[in-house]
Write a structure and sequence with these properties.
Number of helices of chain B: 1
Shape of chain B: globular
Distance between the termini of chain B: 69 Å
Number of strands of chain A: 29
Number of strands of chain B: 56
Helix content of chain B: under 10%
Largest interface: A-B, 111 and 89 residues
Strand content of chain A: over 45%
Distance between the termini of chain A: 27 Å
Largest sheet of chain A: 5 strands, antiparallel
Largest sheet of chain B: 5 strands, mixed
Radius of gyration of chain A: 19 Å
Oligomer: heterodimer
Shape of chain A: globular
């Protein structure tokens, strides 16, 4: 894995992206960012990154010297089978990280590792193709969506895992192809989307049941979708949901609808729709709720949105194809973005400075980089 | 670069100011009373102050003992200095939800027996950021659910006649109140008249003298009785015969099965039915074998097989009658030397499966896949195995081409895809009708095969493709450019999975981990099956759940039909993916299943190399070729009837360890798949590519590297 740092970005934006940018009528540059904003980080930042076709997790360090792979950790149980680590999360205590391993016999598993030592602590079997996960610091319970990406498009579940014993204690019926899972800060509500049902679900995380469902597909949204002509096909195909903001908003990526939807949790309705380039996939919101960072899986780019104005203030092409995950540091300054790559290409982790919306570091990891979680070392 | 630049000034980023949770849901559904109570409590809890650090949680009762089907209600008491704390949510869950359930109100229901734990906890204040997730209020409630009492016990498998002076083993069927047949309950037996018959502590019934007695079987409080009449033993003569003529007994080798049969005859010379016979064996191994351990076995039905050479005595007893048969067992002497012929080196990535075939032009070709790489399949000219030559490469959008198969006519290759960057995997069909001028992709099929195709088989213009580890799909490739699905087969067992499929004579044999091997009629099973109508014929599973591959084979020497089922297991953990790691270690063995009757498969033998593990296998001309991962390639004599431990019987003909100092992981044999072909043995190795070896007579046949070789 090479170490690269890139302050001056020189990647040429594709014609397609340029056209899309123009179409989106993005504002032009008003002023160059102040030089102070371009200073490299004064401390190290850490993130765990899944390489789905390598069966390994990379620990990334980004600091004054740039980005590098500090360590790789093999995951799974079969050396001769690709088991597919997909989703990853660090416990709120910072003591453990958890990874969903997609393929099993047939069910996937959740593995627990200690941060720092990266020693394996335990595992448990969950449902078909577990993907996104989140851990509640208030209860120690982990929630993982059993996405069952390649099943017969029948309703699936959300598994609840007691992390102290790594025991699956419940499966909550949800919908078809659940993906994305983010808890409210108090651990009482979990939000997820069902990709094939075009819906957002709110889970009562303490009673283990769905409390509300919100249909995301509207006639207007249908106009943006690529599947509207197919009966029963999802029109917006929601792929991700952000954690709720302090103001009670969350954001949904509509992979086929080519939109980001803002949902007001009090009213439980869509309040704004932001048109995007093709394929918004994963989202993260800065801790001050001011900025949303989105990966565009079908457009090979990362978008930065001002949530107050609903304007995409910058869009940056990724260095390789198929951007996937995004996680933001606790101080809100940096975004770690994973890029899958194609075929035998290594995956890439790209680090963006959110203040200037520029890539400030890249590092190669194993094939098909996907899930990413920031670890606040010592925090 | 940036595609557009900010016009708006980004506000300074602040640390998190995450506050109150969103308002609670308005649930439009009817709620139970208790649920409403909880909703109200939760609503109230949103306004509650943080839980005091001195708060305590108590749950009553503190432990439970429930019968299956019973329910109980838990009551949580949350206090601070003996003052109740109301409105806080208590979360309940079970660590064994399939055996004991608990709902959000604390109502517990017992489903199955055992010792379990229910947890009650009160969520921590979200602003509290201790370093331990275990600091919240938490109570564990032990739950004991005893086995249901035994409902019935029944004596079974009793013979029709009981002869004085003989003994037999008693058997019972125990059913508990829930209807489950139990094997963990001790059954005691007694006889009402011990001068006629006496039951010992091990379940044997000793028939002492003519007369009547009642046998009682007791399991817990359940009993059943059976009156038996013991008669004089009519046996006048007793002999032990075998299926080997005396003159041939000297020809018995280790691993050969000798069938013995003890016959008691009455004074008229008629065979006595239901005569219980016990077989045992004792022997003297060859004097050169020191401290040999157990050297031979005889089954309850009189089949004898030896693992070591020597002279053995099989003893049959029935009442006071004893008959013996002595058998001289010679070393099997099948040893050959495995000699290197050639290697098609693949050292920059892992190699997966292989297939060797004769091309339309009469030359010999091989195709190999790659694993965890860039989606390559390699085509080799192996006409001269001393000089294996790479002649073409197919590359598809995949990280792993796990399996490669060639159609019976040698014109088409089918390769599997996993890890496609667009997550549309499926199969790719390649025209290999003239590899000397190149191969080309002529068809793709991924409809409903997106989840990854791990293994394929080509049979009669159909591809059997293992999809997403859940089922196999059957795809017609008569026109390889226009493949289409005609059928599929998926088990309906809970948590079912499939790993491999192999088709022979119109029967598909699938390997399904814990569900074992399934035989499915797809046109040759005589049950109306067809590619568009797969019909299950039978199945066999074994306890480990490691079933990974299966090879059907009818023995040339005996005509018996066997399925050789291979394991895949890595109980020693993850190692060996990188050059600086210890080589990977696998486990598992070949299970030999005698399967003459689809409804009655029987596992009769094993081939197990200690400290290594099986992968793929092939059988031809009564010789089995096993890719034994870290144990290299193994060649095994499977002629004759198969019984017991084939490895210990000296049936191993040869082994070859493919060491390659420049391999992907140097000097780390990890043998993937074998195929015998035109007097050579080809095999693929994960770390070093395609190999060809041949078997030759040993230069020093008298040289023995440990018994029983």
């Amino acid at each position: 894995m090479s170490i690269q740092i890139s302050i001056q970005m020189s990647i040429q934006m594709s014609i397609q992206m340029l056209a899309l940018a123009v179409a989106a009528t993005l504002p032009l540059v008003a002023a160059a960012p102040p030089e102070a904003d371009r200073e490299p980080p004064l401390r190290d930042y850490w993130a765990y990154v899944c390489a789905e076709s390598e069966d390994e997790v990379a620990l990334i360090r980004f600091g004054p010297q740039g980005a590098e792979v500090a360590k790789t950790i093999e995951v799974g149980t079969f050396p001769a089978e690709i088991e597919g680590p997909h989703g990853i999360g660090v416990s709120p205590s910072g003591r453990y990280w958890y990874v969903s391993v997609s393929h099993g016999m047939p069910f996937g598993t959740i593995h627990k590792f200690a941060t720092g030592t990266d020693e394996w602590e335990g595992d448990t079997t969950v449902g078909m193709f577990p993907a996104t996960l989140d851990v509640a610091g208030t209860t120690g319970l982990l929630y993982v969506v059993n996405s069952d990406f390649f099943g017969d498009h029948s309703p699936s579940t959300i598994s609840v895992v007691e992390t102290s014993t790594m025991t699956e204690v419940r499966q909550i019926p949800t919908g078809t192809m659940p993906h994305g899972a983010r808890l409210s800060r108090d651990g009482k509500r979990l939000y997820s989307v069902n990709m094939m049902d075009d819906e957002l679900v709110e889970v009562d995380a303490l009673r283990f049941e769905i409390s509300r469902r919100l249909a995301l597909s509207t006639p207007a949204a249908a106009g943006h979708g690529g599947h509207a002509e197919h009966a029963g096909a999802p029109r917006v195909e929601p792929a991700w949901v952000s954690a709720p903001t302090a103001a009670g908003k969350l954001y949904v990526a509509a992979l086929s609808g080519n939109q980001i939807l803002e949902v007001d949790l009090a009213a439980f309705e869509v309040t704004r729709r932001f048109d995007t380039v093709a394929g918004p996939y994963n989202l993260a919101v800065t801790p001050d709720d001011a900025m949303l960072v989105a990966t565009y899986k079908k457009s090979d780019a990362v978008g930065f949105w001002d949530l107050a104005t609903g304007v995409e203030i910058a869009r940056v092409a990724t260095t390789r194809r198929i951007p996937h995950g995004v996680a933001i540091t606790s101080d809100g300054r940096y975004s770690f973005v994973t890029v899958e790559g194609v075929g035998g290409e290594p995956g890439v982790v790209e680090v963006f400075d959110n203040r200037i919306q520029e890539r400030v570091g890249t590092v190669e990891v194993g094939k098909q980089a996907g899930g990413v979680a920031v670890w606040e070392r010592g925090g | 670069m940036r595609s557009s630049i900010h016009a708006a000034v980004i506000t300074p980023l602040l640390l998190a100011l995450l506050g109150a949770p969103p308002a609670h849901a308005q649930d439009e559904q009817d709620e139970q009373d208790d649920e409403e109570t909880i909703e109200a409590a939760e609503a109230a809890s949103a306004e509650l102050p943080p839980l005091p650090s001195t708060a305590t949680l108590e749950v009553n009762p503190s432990e439970l003992r429930l019968e299956v089907g019973e329910t109980a209600q838990l009551e949580a008491v949350l206090q601070d200095r003996e003052q109740p704390l109301d409105g806080y949510t208590v979360v309940y869950f079970s660590r064994s939800r399939r055996n004991v359930g608990v709902d959000a109100t604390g109502k517990v229901e017992a489903y199955g027996p055992g010792e379990f734990t229910i947890v009650a906890l009160v969520p921590r204040d979200p602003e509290d950021r201790p370093r331990s997730a275990e600091a919240m209020l938490r109570v564990e409630i032990p739950v004991t659910i005893p086995n249901p009492p035994v409902e019935t016990v029944e004596l079974v498998r009793l013979p029709g006649s009981f002869y004085a002076g003989t003994q037999l083993l008693l058997h019972s069927r125990v059913i508990d109140r829930s209807g489950v047949e139990r094997s963990d309950v001790e059954v005691e037996y007694e006889s009402s008249n011990e001068s006629v018959a006496e039951a010992d502590a091990f379940g044997h019934l000793l028939l002492k003298a003519p007369g009547s007695t009642t046998i009682t079987a007791r399991a817990e409080a359940a009993t059943s009785t059976r009156r038996i009449d013991v008669v004089e033993n009519p046996v006048a003569s007793f002999e032990l015969v075998s299926d080997f003529e005396e003159g041939e007994l000297a020809e018995v080798r280790t691993g050969d099965v000798v069938r013995l049969s003890a016959i008691g005859r009455d004074r008229r010379g008629l065979a006595v039915e239901d005569l219980p016979v016990h077989y045992s064996v004792a022997g003297r191994p060859a004097v050169s074998i020191i401290a040999p351990g157990s050297t031979a076995m005889v089954t309850e039905d009189g089949r004898f097989v030896a693992e070591r050479s020597g002279i053995y005595t099989v003893v049959a007893t029935a009442g006071g009658f004893v008959a013996e048969k002595r058998i001289r067992v010679e070393p099997r002497r099948v040893r050959k030397e495995a000699q290197y012929v050639g290697q098609g080196k693949v050292r920059d990535r892992h190699t997966s499966d292989l297939w060797i075939w004769e091309g339309q032009d009469g030359r010999d070709y091989a195709i190999t896949g790659t694993w965890g790489a860039e989606g390559h399949a390699y085509v080799w000219d192996v006409t001269n195995p001393e000089s294996i030559t790479l002649i073409d490469t197919v590359r598809v959008d995949a990280r792993t081409v796990n399996d490669v198969k060639i159609s019976e006519d040698g014109k088409l290759a089918v390769i599997s895809r996993e890890g496609a960057s667009n997550r549309r995997n499926g199969i790719v069909i390649v025209d290999v009708s003239d590899p000397s001028v190149g191969v080309r992709i002529v068809g793709r099929y991924d409809d409903q095969l997106r989840g990854g195709v791990h293994n394929v088989f080509v049979h009669d213009q159909h591809v059997y493709a293992v999809n997403n580890g859940r089922r196999f799909d059957i795809i017609n490739i008569e026109d390889p450019a226009q493949p289409y699905r005609v059928g599929r087969f998926e088990l309906d067992t809970p948590g079912h999975a499939i790993h491999d499929v192999w088709v022979a004579d119109g029967v598909a044999f699938t390997s399904n981990w814990g569900d074992g091997v399934w035989a499915i009629d797809v046109g040759g099973g005589g049950k109306g099956g067809a590619p568009n109508n797969p019909v299950p014929l039978g199945h066999y599973a074994y306890p480990s759940g490691w079933n990974h591959a299966a090879f059907p084979y009818r023995s040339k020497s005996t005509g018996k039909f066997y399925v050789f089922a291979g394991d895949e297991a890595f109980p020693y953990g993850l190692t060996g993916r990188e050059a600086n790691e210890a080589p990977p270690r696998a486990a598992g063995w070949i299970h030999v299943i005698e399967w003459e009757d689809w409804a009655n498969p029987r596992e009769v033998a094993r081939y197990q190399v200690p400290e290594a593990g099986t992968h793929n296998l092939w059988i031809e001309d009564d010789v089995m070729y096993v890719a034994y991962y870290n144990g290299g390639l193994r060649v095994v004599d499977v002629s004759g009837e198969l019984l017991g431990d084939l490895y210990a019987q000296g049936r191993e003909i040869a082994m070859f360890m493919p060491f390659d100092g420049e391999g992907f992981i140097p000097n780390s044999p990890f043998t993937w798949g074998p195929q015998p072909y035109k007097d050579r043995i080809f095999f693929s190795d994960w770390n070093s590519g395609l190999w060809a070896i041949e078997l030759v007579d040993p230069e020093r046949p008298d040289r023995v590297i440990g018994e029983p070789q």
